[in-house]
């Protein structure tokens, strides 16, 4: 992790839905320009963690600081400047189905009153070029493949030049070639922009390609935090089973 004040500093984060405790004492720092991945099986709370970070859900306990600013007590108005600096790519892309690709990408500029209407065609063209999809402005989301929808969603997330990108299961539902292309895109985007990233996923291959550090989430807690190389050397049997894809070992204590 790079020196200096981390972008995110999370401590003792807890979240429950009734009797189900999803997060329990989670903590980590996100350095500037770092990619931090959270691995875990489906239903372990990875996506819940992302939603806490940008205030889409409130934690039951714990602290979330962004550049030293405590976020957990902020209202929607106070969170708005942070959300402009931290963009989230939802698992399904969250594109507006009734809008063309152009209008999907124009939306953040219009919403935040950035530039003018006459600027939008060039802004949209530049965003699509960044994700390798030039010339699809007039297509509808329903006309795109799953991989293309993910790329358009990333282009929209980049519109306001965020400092942090949050990826929620970016390769879920994609074939191996499309998943590999998304991994390359994550790497290329980070190199080009210098932004930090948090990737939550169960895709071990993706993590090995893009992450500077990873955490393994199990039963609401980080069972491991370290580099991919350290994870491979870990003597934790559950982590080893997960990295090897041995589903039959998933109940190892």
> Helical element count?
9
Radius of gyration from the alpha-carbon trace, in angstroms: 18 Å
Give the proportion of residues in helices: 25-40%
Q: Give the topology string: H per helix, E per strand.
A: EEEHEEHEHHHEHEHEEHH
Q: Strands of the largest sheet, in order across it?
A: 6-7-8-3-9-10
Q: Roughly what fraction of the amino acids lie in strands? A: 15-25%
Low-confidence stretches: 248-253
Query: What class do helices, strands and sheet pairing give?
Result: alpha/beta
- The residue-averaged pLDDT reads 90
Q: Main β-sheet: number of strands, strand sense, barrel status?
A: 6 strands, mixed
**What overall form do the CA principal axes indicate?**
globular
Number of strands: 10
Topology:
Blueprint: E1 8-17, E2 20-30, E3 35-39, H1 46-53, E4 61-66, E5 69-70, H2 76-85, E6 86-89, H3 101-111, H4 120-130, H5 146-157, E7 164-168, H6 176-193, E8 196-201, H7 204-210, E9 213-218, E10 221-226, H8 228-233, H9 237-244
Parallel strand pairs: 3-8, 3-9, 6-7, 7-8
Antiparallel strand pairs: 1-2, 1-4, 4-5, 9-10
